[in-house]
Input
Amino acid sequence: MNDYTEKSAEITLRFEVRRNRPSVTQGSATVYINGEEAITFGDDIELIREGERYYGPIIGGWASKKPDAGFICGLLFHPHDELYHISQRAKKIIGALCEAEYPGTIKA
Output
């Protein structure tokens, strides 16, 4: 008889994008992983025509056309990651979560 029961390992990751609009035509978007700030990107704010899709608040007819997923993907898969190492920010946060749940699993 085997008393060993394998438990499923689970780490929940919650990505959140918070948009900041200091003015009608300026904006940024900050990506958080489980409540911890990972990065802030500039957000292109454009004049929205009737029927156009937009994301975040619309102020005076101006808003972002970039969905939240675009910023999350930018953190994880930036086209110039080999230069900027942006994904390292996500790995640092996620690595800390892994180490907290499963000590010794992250090799420095």
